[in-house]
Amino acid sequence: EVQLVEHGGGLVQPGGSLRLSCVASGFTFGDYAMSWVRQAPGKGLEWVSSINWDGDMDYYPESIQGRFTISRDNAKNTLYLQMNSLKSEDTAVYYCALSGSSYWGQGTQVTVSS
Hints:
Elements: E1 3-7, E2 10-12, E3 18-25, E4 34-39, E5 45-51, E6 58-59, E7 68-73, E8 78-83, E9 92-98, E10 108-112
Parallel strand pairs: 2-10
Antiparallel strand pairs: 1-3, 3-8, 4-5, 4-9, 5-6, 7-8, 9-10
């Protein structure tokens, strides 16, 4: 059974940083691309970032490029999202996902507020 469990959300002030992690199980993590997506209150899903199977290629939308960094540790079956220079508009539930599949985690809340 595929399981994705996110950790690391919380409340942070504007300009601050957070690091999210996602522990994967039930599949060969190192064989697959992974993604982060988010959903802000009252809004639809927004793609945040993706990374290829071995971590040497990563992708971001323009709104996030330069502030967030996706990475992975295949030995630990773990995906990460380092978020810097956080803004109030980054407030959302963040989900990790097995790219191109319907497998998502339960999400972790990130709130950026003073």
